[in-house]
């Protein structure tokens, strides 16, 4: 078992789906040639770096943005280049699998039994990741995709990481 991981989703977590509260700025980007408008908060980078440092944890992307998050998201929120879970695009309906189950499968495989905190907005991700074989000790911090990541979410993760043996 290695050091704990702090996994970050982008859309709905760092990029809320509705116009967010104070501290966010609008950004334009075009990963893979597709134009997007993002709401990002530069304070998130420092909060996440402080969380990881205090816990001796490694930050990583767990988002469909994959490595694109390093180009389009990280510099705008003050994060360095991070490793990422290689999550392929959801293929659509797959024998009852949901979006949360699809992501959970890839997250579980990539974490290789390491403990982790996952900031995620998919409503079924908690039970889906817990059902994956070989999953390590984890906390899924459920984010309201309309509001995005808050200081309360960071405190919840910090408390869980601090309580680990």
Helix and strand topology:
Layout: E1 5-8, E2 24-29, E3 36-41, H1 43-55, E4 58-61, H2 68-72, H3 74-77, H4 99-111, E5 116-120, H5 125-130, E6 138-142, H6 151-163
Parallel strand pairs: 1-4, 1-5, 5-6
Antiparallel strand pairs: 2-3
Helix pairs in contact: 1-6
Describe what you observe in this structure:
The protein is of the alpha/beta class. The chain has one domain (5-163): Rossmann fold (3-Layer(aba) Sandwich). The chain has helices at residues 43-55, 68-72, 74-77, 99-111, 125-130, 151-163, and strands at residues 5-8, 24-29, 36-41, 58-61, 116-120, 138-142. A four-stranded parallel beta sheet has the order 4-1-5-6. The longest helix has 13 residues, at 43-55. The protein starts with a strand and ends with a helix.
Provide tags for this entry.
165 residues; alpha/beta; Rossmann fold; four-stranded parallel β-sheet; 6 helices; 6 strands; HAD domain-containing protein
Brief synopsis:
The chain is of the alpha/beta class and 165 residues long.
* CATH topology-level fold name: Rossmann fold
What is the total tally of β strands?
6
> Please, how many helices?
6
Largest sheet: 4 strands, parallel
What percent strand?
A: 15-25%
**Weakly predicted, low-confidence segments:** none
Q: What oligomeric state do the depicted chains represent?
A: single chain
Which architecture per CATH? Answer: 3-Layer(aba) Sandwich
**Total separate domains:** 1
Structural class: alpha/beta
- Gyration radius from CA atoms, angstroms: 15 Å
Provide the helix percentage: 25-40%
Assign the CATH class. Alpha Beta
Q: How far from one another are the termini?
A: 12 Å
* Strand ordering within the main sheet: 4-1-5-6
Gross morphology: globular
Pfam families: HAD_SAK_2
Protein name: HAD domain-containing protein
């Amino acid at each position: 078992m290695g050091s704990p991981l702090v996994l970050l989703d982008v859309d709905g977590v760092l990029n809320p789906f509705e116009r967010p509260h104070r501290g966010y700025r609008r950004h334009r980007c075009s990963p893979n040639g597709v134009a997007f408008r993002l709401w990002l908060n530069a304070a998130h980078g420092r909060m996440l770096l402080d969380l990881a440092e205090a816990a001796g944890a490694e930050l990583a992307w767990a988002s469909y943005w994959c490595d694109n998050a390093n180009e389009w998201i990280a510099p705008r929120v003050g994060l360095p280049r991070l490793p990422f879970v290689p999550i392929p695009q959801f293929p659509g309906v797959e024998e009852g699998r949901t979006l949360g189950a699809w992501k959970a499968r890839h997250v579980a495989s990539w974490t290789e039994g390491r403990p982790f905190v996952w900031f995620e907005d998919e409503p079924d991700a908690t039970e889906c990741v817990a059902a994956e074989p070989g999953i390590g000790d984890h906390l899924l911090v459920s984010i309201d995709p309309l509001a995005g990541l808050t200081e309360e979410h960071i405190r919840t993760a910090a408390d869980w990481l601090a309580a680990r043996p």
